[in-house]
């Protein structure tokens, strides 16, 4: 995957170095325990150079597992790993340690990823950079023990696919670490993330896997990047995901002839890029594509679902080109995460469901004016469904309209509140209710009607048991009233124009 934004250093710590001999660790401290990942897991990539908190974004987006990108060396020839190759971000608890611990405490985990497009094109992917297999293995082991993780990802693309010596070193190091993990009773999986065509990886990607077999290195997941095809064709991205994965399945069958078809599907992972990818609009992955891929992934029983990247899962740049911080399409924030997150349970299709929000959630209007807000719906699980909208809680003397009154989940409606000169000033909470086949969801819109005394009546409230004489004033139902003569038990607003109570207006 590509790293498009510049590095921003937000964590500072002294750089550490790995021991040169064997798999010994320098300053690793007590090794943290690891928990195996689920058989089916959604783990979107987190761009680790942005200065954001992975734990915070995971909580906001509803994700429990993240793939952390990327670990690489500072410069070609080095054997010391850093997050993003930044010496201020060593492999230590000071760099993402508390975030990863939070993910784990919440029932999830992180998958540290080595490599990535930048590292693979600058010689800083650790096996490209370091010629000592023992030191490469030590780097892997340090990441595992410092963060207590149970899977490492190797993102190998571009120039790294052509470095046969580095491919061999990497797989030899993986074998060493897998043996170490087995001897110490630690769960450990290794995934390879590789580029693909619409019919599976090319020969260079397959050569990485074949070399792993020759070196006795176990590959648990082969994760293909089902985007950036760069073939100058117009794509239906969900369909192309299916054909690419089928091609990979058939290729894996030749490499691992002893595995069943179900086991091969369980080895497969796919990574999507939400919205417009690096090639351009011809490769646009939509929310409809995401729902299709989700259903297909559950049916096939693939092992891993991912996307590049979590920070893109928002509609902040609709109609724009590929970016690292938005999808380039119309969407609500975390729409893709909501579709994919249930995959971690992996066994069933999620029931259809939707959400309702009002944007903006507040507004103000003078009596006689109108206020509007946009009522947005989104598919939060399963497929889109018709949603009937209605609104309640409007102030007396105001009317509300929703245009349209029925939308398909994912669509929007305009709520208009029209007040009259008699509308009582004050603050009101309007409730928009969306009703679909899966149930009801609501959103609140707070409307302030300005003017008068800010909704506060100064006269004493009317009392049914009190005696009033001509000229006395009371407040009742947001209006001020004046008695024309002696009265008791007659409610203001019910005696008519010629009755005892004179309406002095809203207060």
From TrEMBL:
<keyword id="KW-0378">Hydrolase</keyword>
<keyword id="KW-0624">Polysaccharide degradation</keyword>
<dbReference type="GO" id="GO:0008843">
    <property type="term" value="F:endochitinase activity"/>
</dbReference>
<dbReference type="GO" id="GO:0000272">
    <property type="term" value="P:polysaccharide catabolic process"/>
</dbReference>
<dbReference type="GO" id="GO:0030246">
    <property type="term" value="F:carbohydrate binding"/>
</dbReference>
<feature type="domain" description="GH18">
    <location>
        <begin position="40"/>
        <end position="347"/>
    </location>
</feature>
<keyword id="KW-0326">Glycosidase</keyword>
<dbReference type="InterPro" id="IPR017853">
    <property type="entry name" value="GH"/>
</dbReference>
<feature type="signal peptide">
    <location>
        <begin position="1"/>
        <end position="26"/>
    </location>
</feature>
<keyword id="KW-0732">Signal</keyword>
<dbReference type="InterPro" id="IPR003610">
    <property type="entry name" value="CBM5/12"/>
</dbReference>
<dbReference type="InterPro" id="IPR001223">
    <property type="entry name" value="Glyco_hydro18_cat"/>
</dbReference>
<keyword id="KW-0147">Chitin-binding</keyword>
<protein>
    <recommendedName>
        <fullName>chitinase</fullName>
        <ecNumber>3.2.1.14</ecNumber>
    </recommendedName>
</protein>
<keyword id="KW-0146">Chitin degradation</keyword>
<dbReference type="Pfam" id="PF02839">
    <property type="entry name" value="CBM_5_12"/>
</dbReference>
<dbReference type="InterPro" id="IPR006311">
    <property type="entry name" value="TAT_signal"/>
</dbReference>
<dbReference type="InterPro" id="IPR052750">
    <property type="entry name" value="GH18_Chitinase"/>
</dbReference>
<dbReference type="GO" id="GO:0006032">
    <property type="term" value="P:chitin catabolic process"/>
</dbReference>
<dbReference type="GO" id="GO:0008061">
    <property type="term" value="F:chitin binding"/>
</dbReference>
<keyword id="KW-0119">Carbohydrate metabolism</keyword>
<dbReference type="GO" id="GO:0005576">
    <property type="term" value="C:extracellular region"/>
</dbReference>
<dbReference type="Pfam" id="PF00704">
    <property type="entry name" value="Glyco_hydro_18"/>
</dbReference>
<dbReference type="InterPro" id="IPR036573">
    <property type="entry name" value="CBM_sf_5/12"/>
</dbReference>
């Amino acid at each position: 995957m590509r790293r498009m934004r510049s590095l921003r250093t937000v964590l500072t710590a002294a750089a550490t170095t790995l021991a040169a001999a064997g798999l010994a660790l320098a300053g690793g401290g007590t090794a943290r325990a690891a928990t195996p990942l689920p058989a089916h897991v959604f783990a979107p990539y987190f761009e680790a150079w942005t200065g954001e908190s992975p734990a915070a974004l995971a909580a906001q987006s509803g994700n429990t597992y993240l793939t952390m990108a990327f670990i690489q060396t500072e410069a070609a020839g080095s054997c010391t790993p850093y997050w993003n190759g930044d010496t201020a971000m060593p492999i230590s608890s000071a760099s993402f340690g508390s975030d990863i611990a939070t993910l784990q405490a919440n029932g999830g985990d992180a998958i540290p990823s080595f490599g990535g497009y930048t590292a693979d094109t600058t010689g800083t992917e650790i096996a490209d950079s370091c010629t000592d297999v023992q030191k490469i293995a030590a780097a892997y082991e340090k990441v595992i023990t410092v963060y207590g993780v149970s899977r490492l990802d190797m993102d190998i693309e571009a120039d790294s696919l052509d470095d046969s010596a580095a491919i061999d070193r990497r797989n030899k190091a993986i074998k060493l670490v897998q043996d170490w993990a087995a001897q110490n009773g630690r769960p450990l999986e290794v995934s390879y993330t590789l580029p693909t065509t619409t019919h599976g990886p090319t020969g260079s990607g397959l050569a990485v896997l074949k070399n792993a077999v020759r070196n006795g290195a176990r590959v648990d997941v082969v994760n293909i990047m089902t985007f950036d095809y760069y073939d100058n064709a117009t794509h239906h991205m969900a369909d192309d995901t299916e054909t690419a994965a089928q091609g990979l399945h058939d290729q894996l069958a030749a490499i691992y002839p002893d595995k069943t078809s179900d086991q091969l599907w369980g080895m497969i992972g796919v990574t999507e890029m939400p919205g417009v990818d690096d090639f351009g609009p011809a490769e646009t992955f939509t929310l409809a594509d995401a729902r299709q891929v989700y259903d297909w992934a559950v049916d096939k029983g693939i092992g891993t679902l991912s996307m590049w990247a979590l920070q893109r899962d928002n509609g902040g740049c609709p109609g724009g080109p590929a970016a690292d911080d938005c999808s380039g399409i119309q969407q609500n924030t975390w729409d893709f995460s909501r579709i994919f997150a249930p995959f971690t349970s992996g066994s069933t299709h999620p029931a259809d469901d939707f959400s309702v929000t009002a944007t903006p959630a507040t507004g103000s209007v003078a009596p006689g004016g109108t206020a509007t807000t946009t009522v947005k719906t989104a598919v939060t699980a399963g497929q889109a469904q018709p949603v009937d909208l209605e609104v309640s809680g409007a102030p007396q003397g105001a009317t509300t309209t929703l245009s349209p009154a029925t939308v398909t989940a994912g669509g929007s409606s305009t709520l208009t509140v029209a007040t009259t000169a008699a509308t009582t000033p004050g603050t009101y909470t309007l409730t928009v209710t969306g009703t679909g086949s899966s149930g009801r969801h609501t959103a609140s819109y707070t409307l302030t009607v300005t003017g008068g005394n800010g909704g506060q009546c100064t006269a004493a409230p009317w009392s049914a048991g009190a005696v009033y004489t001509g000229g006395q004033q009371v407040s009742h139902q947001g209006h001020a009233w004046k008695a024309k003569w002696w009265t008791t038990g007659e409610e203001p607003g019910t005696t008519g124009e010629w009755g005892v109570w004179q309406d002095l207006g809203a207060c």
